[in-house]
Each structure stands twice: as structure tokens, then as C-alpha cells.
Specification:
single chain, alpha+beta, Alpha-Beta Plaits, 3 domains, six-stranded antiparallel β-barrel, four-stranded mixed β-sheet, about 40% strand
Length: about 350
């Protein structure tokens, strides 16, 4: 058996060269009370083709017994089987300003040992918010994006068949409480920034020709509605106000796929980088050892391990880049793999030579 610890792959570099972009205030802010809310509930999926929870999942059996008892059917949980039923957690995201009667998509995830939710239907399930109140009811046929096929000697699974979705499977039953004053409304920045907050404040005041916007901090802008103006019309005009948002100096690295995204204004100070390549090879060669003839010994398999470490000569490259294109060119000259690129960027950032925020996801 041979195992190698090597770094191989191709890094995909995405370059953004725009230093600023025009956008709407509504695209970078959220109106007070305009946030989404998450709901969760516990339910049962029925109608499965023998792929439900087994007898070891006791909470599924007890849930079925309790449900039947509420319907006037008394059963003994000890004599029940649950192959066609699965216990699930049901989640949904309630959009801002949701009203009773609106429909939302529902996610269903198995919490027992069910093999698949394919073909199942979710029974009526109340969905509760963090305050414990019921805000929606969910029910319907489950759609899954995978499958599981099995026989006595083999099985094949695609994606995750124990997670499904019910489009429009939830119905809003209760309106979320919203407390706002009629004359003052707050805007919250999606990405807090003092400079952006001041920019939005100035643009809104210029749009209305009055001091109606005040930046409280880097994430909050307080709005004062003009007298006699409809609140919906006022917020629509605020959201449609155009601003020039400067791009953030940022480098984002996806460690799994090797994708590296550079902001258009990323620069670096002069720095030298050395990149080496280390390869570790482990070879297992089991050897059968026979005892001497007519001896009481036993035949045994003795492991033989061969360990080999190779380290190529390190490459040293002096980077004098001041722009994104020069930085990318320098990394390409190094010939670094995705993992090496991540290490190089982290080292450059630690040395204080990278003039940008580094995010590894």
C-alpha cells in the first residue's frame, strides 16, 4: 500500500478590477424589521417504502403511539414497527413582513436511522419560533434530490436521500410582531462600515434636500420620515437612492476547491517568498514468516514498512508587486498549488505585506 502526502491541483483565480460600483441603498442595507426569521418543528413522515426508522429509534415509536392515541386509537408501542415512518426535523425561513396565509418552502431532515425519505409525505407539523409560539403549519409530499438503491450484496447512494424539501409546504398562521414608530425608521448595513454609513447618510440627505438621515454608528442609519409622506413611498425612494460603493480590499480563498478571489484594489508590499515541496511515501510490504520444519511455531504475517521522505529544493521568489496583476503573476511564477497558495497568502498577511483582508472559507 502506497500513500503520498502531496499537494496537487490547479488554483482558479478570479480577478475583480472595478474599484467602485453603483448600487441601490436597498441592496446594501436592511430596513428595521425586515429580517428573516427561522422556524423549527418536529414531525413524522409516512408512506415510506420500508426505508423508515427501525425499532431502535424509540422516539419515533412513541410519537406514532401518541398521535394515534389523540385520534382515539390505543396501541401498544412495544408491538409496533416503523419501517414506513421516519421522525424528522422540519425547518423553514419566514420572510420579512410575512402575513397569515402566505406560503413558504419547508426543509425536512431525518433525525433517526431512516435510509431514505423518498416517496414520503409529511404529516401536519407546527413550526415554532424562538419564543415558542407557532407561526406556521407544514404538510405535504417530500421531494428529494437523491436516491438509495440496495440489494443483498451491494448498495448505491446519490446525494443525501434523508433530506428533502416541500415547495410551498408551509402556511403562515401568525404575523410576526413588528414595533416601529411612524416617523423614525432605522436602516441596518449588511456589512458595517463607518465610511459607507456616512456615504449613505449624505446621499439620502442630498436626495431629499433635507437632514432626514443620521448615521448613528457604522451599522445603523436613523431615518426621519418627512411630514405628510406615505411610509411605503418614503422607503421606496430611500431604497432606490443610488450610491457609489468602493470595493473592499479583500482576498477570499476556498481551501476545498482552490478558488482564490482577489478584490480589484489589493496591493502588496515588497516581500520574498520561499516555497518547498515535501513528499512522504509509505510502502507496506507484508511478509509471511514460516516456522522451522517440525517446530511448534505458527505461520505469521510480519509487516514491513518502508518510509521515504523527499523534499525538493525550495524556490525563493522576490515579489515586488503593487497591483493585483503583479501579485497574480508572482504567484504563477512560483508555480504554487492551491494549498501552497493559501500558505503563501497567510504568510504574506502575517508579515504585514498584504494590504487586504484575508478570508479562508
Amino acid at each position: 500500500m502506497v500513500g503520498k502526502n502531496t499537494c496537487k491541483g490547479i488554483a482558479l483565480l478570479i480577478l475583480l478590477f472595478s474599484f467602485s460600483f453603483a448600487t441601490r441603498v436597498g441592496d446594501v442595507t436592511t430596513v428595521e424589521g425586515g429580517r428573516s426569521n427561522y422556524l423549527v418543528g418536529y414531525g413524522l413522515v409516512v408512506g415510506l417504502k420500508g426505508t423508515g426508522d427501525g425499532k431502535s429509534t424509540l422516539f419515533t415509536i412513541r410519537s406514532i403511539a401518541n398521535m394515534l392515541n389523540r385520534m382515539g386509537i390505543v396501541v401498544d408501542p412495544r408491538r409496533m414497527t416503523t419501517k414506513n415512518v421516519a421522525a424528522v426535523m422540519v425547518t423553514a425561513k419566514l420572510p420579512p413582513y410575512a402575513k397569515p396565509g402566505m406560503k413558504v418552502d419547508v426543509e425536512v431532515s431525518s433525525i433517526g436511522d431512516a435510509k431514505s425519505l423518498e416517496g414520503g409525505a409529511l404529516l401536519l407539523t407546527p413550526l415554532r419560533g424562538p419564543d415558542g409560539e407557532v407561526y406556521a403549519l407544514a404538510q405535504g409530499q417530500i421531494l428529494i434530490g437523491g436516491y438509495e438503491a440496495r440489494g443483498r450484496g451491494a448498495q448505491q447512494t446519490k446525494n443525501t436521500p434523508t433530506v428533502g424539501r416541500i415547495p410551498d409546504g408551509g402556511v403562515v398562521e401568525r404575523e410576526l410582531p413588528l414595533q416601529t414608530t411612524s416617523n423614525e425608521i432605522s436602516l441596518y448595513l449588511d456589512n458595517p462600515s463607518f465610511s459607507l454609513a456616512k456615504l449613505i447618510q449624505d446621499r439620502i440627505n442630498a436626495e431629499f434636500g433635507a437632514q432626514i438621515a443620521t448615521a448613528i454608528d457604522g451599522s445603523t442609519i436613523r431615518l426621519r420620515k418627512p411630514e405628510g409622506m406615505n411610509p411605503v413611498e418614503f422607503l421606496a425612494r430611500v431604497e432606490d437612492t443610488r450610491i457609489d460603493v468602493p470595493s473592499v480590499a479583500r482576498v477570499v480563498v476556498d481551501s476545498r476547491s482552490g478558488i482564490v478571489l482577489f478584490g480589484g484594489d489589493v496591493t502588496i508590499n515588497p516581500v520574498s517568498v520561499a516555497v518547498g515541496s515535501l513528499t512522504v511515501t509509505i510502502r507496506e510490504t507484508p511478509e509471511v514468516v514460516q516456522p522451522p520444519p517440525l517446530s511448534p511455531g505458527e505461520t505469521k504475517v510480519v509487516p514491513r514498512t518502508e518510509l521515504k521522505v523527499e523534499e525538493k529544493e525550495a524556490r525563493i521568489l522576490q515579489i515586488r508587486g503593487a497591483t493585483v496583476s503583479q501579485l497574480v503573476e508572482s504567484l504563477n511564477k512560483i508555480g504554487a498549488t492551491p494549498r501552497e497558495i493559501i500558505s503563501v497568502l497567510q504568510a504574506i498577511k502575517a508579515a504585514g505585506a498584504l494590504r487586504a483582508k484575508l478570508e479562508v472559507i
